[in-house]
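Researcher: Next sequence.
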Amino acid sequence: MTAVSRYRQFVRAAIVAIAIAMGLYHMWVIAFGSPEAIVFRGTHLLFAVVLVFLLYRWKAADVDGPIDDAQRTADSRLPTVSDYVLLVLAAAPIIYLLVNYEYVVTRIYYIDELTFMDKVMGVLMIVMVLEATRRVIGWALPITAIVFLIYGLFIARLEPERLIDQLFMTTEGIFGIPLSVSAAYVMIFVLFGSFMERTGTGQLFMDFAMSLTGHSAGGPGKVAVVSSSLFGTISGSAVANVMVDGPISIPLMKRSGFPAHFAAGVESTASTGGQIMPPIMGAAAFVMAEFLSVSYAQVVIWALLPAILFYVSCFAAVHFEAKRRGLVGLPRSELPRLGVVIRERGHLFIPVLCILAIMYSGYSAPMAALVGTLACFPVALLRKSTRGHVTLANIVDAFVEGAKNALGVATACACAGIVIGVVTLSGLGIVFSQFVVGLAKDTLLIALILTMCAGIVLGMGMPTTPAYIIMTALLVPAIIKLGVIAPAAHMFAFYFAVLSAITPPVALAVYAAAGLAKADLWASGWAALKIGAAGFIVPFMLIYEPALLMIGTWPAIITAFFTASFGILLFAAGLHGYFITAANAWQRVLLIVGGLLLIDPGLITDTIGAVTAAVVIAVQLMTRRQQTLQQKAPAQ
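Model: Next structure:
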């Protein structure tokens, strides 16, 4: 064995040991109680930066996007001396805080002067967080943080010592709420997803979706919608969902007659919805729970109906496009049978059910995720069909993949903490809110459009979580000031941070799906926008009709959901040119207008929308009857 091979084995063993230690540490904390904030968050970040500098080189790997949106593999090159030096420099400030914990928590920040070593370690921590984030998710977020630091130092004229104090020595900066969410929630849920993936749950989701919808019109497209919504349970990442689901669903869609660009659009849109689909949403949902001081279960309740509406839109788009093109489903002989799927692999749903049962029994979301994680491999032992997944190597790989997939969120949250620290200390949030309110001239719709654009632009360059965090600091207070309730305002920001994954020109999920489909990027992006169009409308609905967040009386909630669902069906039908039968230009316009009126809350708009829909439905029923008679005439 050569020296290089021995070195490679040593590095691999070190990564495995640290990843397992990271996973076990977080499990132990959930089971037996969390240490003090600085200790817990600092240890979480310590594990993360050590793994980052072992896995990622100075020059970022050539990949299609951030780790929050793709389960990337690290650069295969081995760590160099400079990587080890940076590893030590990144770890030193955190170890400094842990060793001097009593001093850190007993000093009065902003009043007690920082020592020379405090300043050195503070600057070092900021620089190393920026570099670690750059290595994992690219330049966008570090550059954003640098811009905010420049603003704080040279425009807001913050004292450098006070800024270092805020960012490094308190829980209002790098070790703030975003990193707390990464440590307490994201790590265990990412680990749960990794454990589920290693027990063969991905195949269960695909077979389950195939058996349910594969035979219907446009069946493979509907399979992509159903399976991608399920994949959101094990990965709150759009591109990761595309890369797992797409290699199976996209060829099936193309084979059934869908154009390549439409297949890419379906897969990217359905996969993007995984971040907004309960019971396990993207990392930003956990941040939202912390910001609003509510349980994660409450966020799930708020998110449920909007997520259903999003997938109703996707499902309807596939159905109407398939009917317009005259496409049929796959032969039943080629599809797995639902009974067989449930009998052979259905038990793999048990960990998800465990999470739901425990969470809604009053226990914390991390505790529920811990139980679900620990249940994965024992549950796989219940059937011979999945027993082969239960090996020591698979369990070790689950820990390693879970730790790797958490790195992007951990570093992004630490880097976002720099932005939050500057915003808090400088009062920029208040200034920006006043600016947005002034620009909107007290018109809520304009403020919402500005927030939407900001969310899409931020989401183009960085993962959903930091994009949402920055929007929460700068824009959400403005729309709350204009009278929007806090849950609706936060969900609005969350949605548009997520939807950037399918919004050209930088649409990471579309890039991934178009690559798999060998389709044109712009055509795929346009198809994704059409398929997910309702997703851009749903957030506005939440603002004007909180009943869709299940806030209000049950009659109001049921009425709002029913009219919105029907409106979204009409809207999708208008966009894709088919409802009961093919729609001509004026019918498409009426379907779109009627759909929007039904989506818009209010008795008058609902009535006008229903009448408009009734006109189109009546005409289409007559048209279909005439077509049926014409088809029968030659036969007679």
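Model: The chain has 30 helices and no strands. The mean pLDDT is 86.
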